[in-house]
Amino acid sequence: MMGLSVTSTQPNLWYSKEASRTISNQVTVIDNLSNKSEEIQATSSLKSKSTNIWEDLSSKYDIRNATFEEIKEISSALYQAGEVSIKDISLLTFDFDKATNNIKRLDRQGVMNGVSPDFNLYETKANEKGQRDWIKEISAKASKDFGYGNLIGYHNNLKTLDILKKLER
Predict the structure, then answer these.
(1) Is-contact 163 92, C-beta < 8 A?
(2) Residue 77: what are its φ and ψ, rounded to 5°?
(3) CA angle (91, 76, 97) in 5-degree steps
(4) How many angstroms separate the CA atoms of 67 and 15, rounded?
(5) Distance between alpha carbon 66 and the CA centroid of its chain, in Å?
(6) Which of 44, 53, 63, 153 could crosslink 145 through cysteines, CB 3.0-4.6 Å?
(7) In sequence order, what are the residues at sequence separation of 6 or more whose Cβ sits closer than 8 angstroms to the Cβ of residue 146?
(8) What is the 3-state secondary structure (H, E, C) of the chain?
(9) What is the largest CA-CA distance in the chain?
(10) Average predicted confidence (pLDDT) for the chain
(11) How far apart are CA 119 and CA 84, in angstroms?
């Protein structure tokens, strides 16, 4: 029983280590609370900047009467602000004009690949300046995808629509 006895000359090491751990844990908790407070302040600062980017863009651009170039500018600004992902950017900035032209291009014999010259991937018409109502366009695409059973396209269009609606005046 020699190893289990405690004498008055022997310090109670277990108690000292435990007390030390308790103090250390309390300091850690206080440090963590301090860090959380700083994170909350930073997050609220980011949220106010986040709100500002949406407000700034909606005051600068009319999403219901915008060109594709303006959509690209909006997307870039939102991405730079950390508001949208790279996937969101690709959905917002898919170039339907370029895709339409690639589909309609002539084969090597100069024959159109069985595609009507009137073929277009857009669902809505742009005005003479190339502006269109992007909310109406993406809504039409979502409806079409849903009708065809393209649920991935449908959900992607709904996500794009959510982004665009945040920009609506």
Answers:
(1) yes
(2) -65, -40
(3) 45
(4) 73
(5) 21
(6) 153
(7) 154
(8) CHHHCCCCCCCCHHHHHHHHHHHHHHHHHHHHHHHHHHHHHHHHHHHHHHHHHHHHHHHHCCCCCECHHHHHHHHHHHHHCCCCCHHHHHHHCCCHHHHHHHHHCECCCCCECCCCCCCCCCCCCCCCCCCECHHHHHHHHHHHHHHHCCHHHHHHHHHHHHHHHHCCC
(9) 104
(10) 82
(11) 31
Find all residues with CB under 8 Å of 115, minimum gap 6, and list them.
103, 104
Question: Helix 13-60 vs helix 68-80: angle between axes, to the nearest 10 degrees?
Answer: 160
- Asked if the model's pLDDT at residue 8 lies above 90, the reply is no
C-alpha dihedral (116, 153, 92, 86), degrees to nearest 10: -130
Residue 1 has pLDDT above 90, yes or no: no
- The two tokens of residue 87 are 């996937």
